[in-house]
Amino acid sequence: MHPEFAPKELQADFLNEIGHDAGFLGLFNHLDQVAFFLKNSRFQIVFANAHFFSRLGFKEECEIVGQEDFALFPKPLAAKFRADDERVLSTGTEMPAMVELFLSRQGLPDWFLTNKIPVRNSKGAPIGIMGTVQRYDQSRGLSSADPAIARAVELMLHKPGEINSLSQLAKFLGMSHRHFDRRFKQDTGLTPKQFLGRSRIQDACRILRQTNEPIGEIALELGYCDQSALTSQFRQRMGFTPLFYRKRFGVHP
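Above: the chain sequence. Below: its structure as tokens.
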């Protein structure tokens, strides 16, 4: 019979015995399609795995150590990262499972899942931030065992502008709004409101890149009440206005 023990005490005893990092950091280089980073209280990169630094064009970790986000990413994106880091560091709380839209160098939006947690010293005070970033498969809900959820995901991905009310959508699918919210989040990791908001912005990027359609018309087409509503949501998620995005990434004069 095993002696009784407290899990936290067992963990603490083990960590005190091994010291240093016991090779944990090296393990992160073997994570498949998962970028890992650790920053200090000055928001400088201290550690990064190969998936993280190679995606940014670096060949060795030492090339990225000491760099800040503003030297690595476009300013709007870097500002978003910094705001999240400041929140984690100042409050000492985690920011888990954030699904965000990031742009490629060509201006193409993609969905990513980010987790950030505080790094603490021996006294428990936050002294840095570490996290992971990996692609989020927004289409995974299409294979839901619940046909209603699969149908909802299909509509949000391909016809986001046709959804004027999530309550009405839930009713159309034969569910209460509360049940719809709960089931949708179980299968996708996001609430219907969060998923629809990101789908609309992704579609807005496509239309802005490929057409000269007036932004006000795009807003109405995607289910926003007016151009200012689209601009507000676009700026919040992408860091700049739809007009700036079109000027930078649009394929039409």
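The first helix runs from residue 7 to 18.
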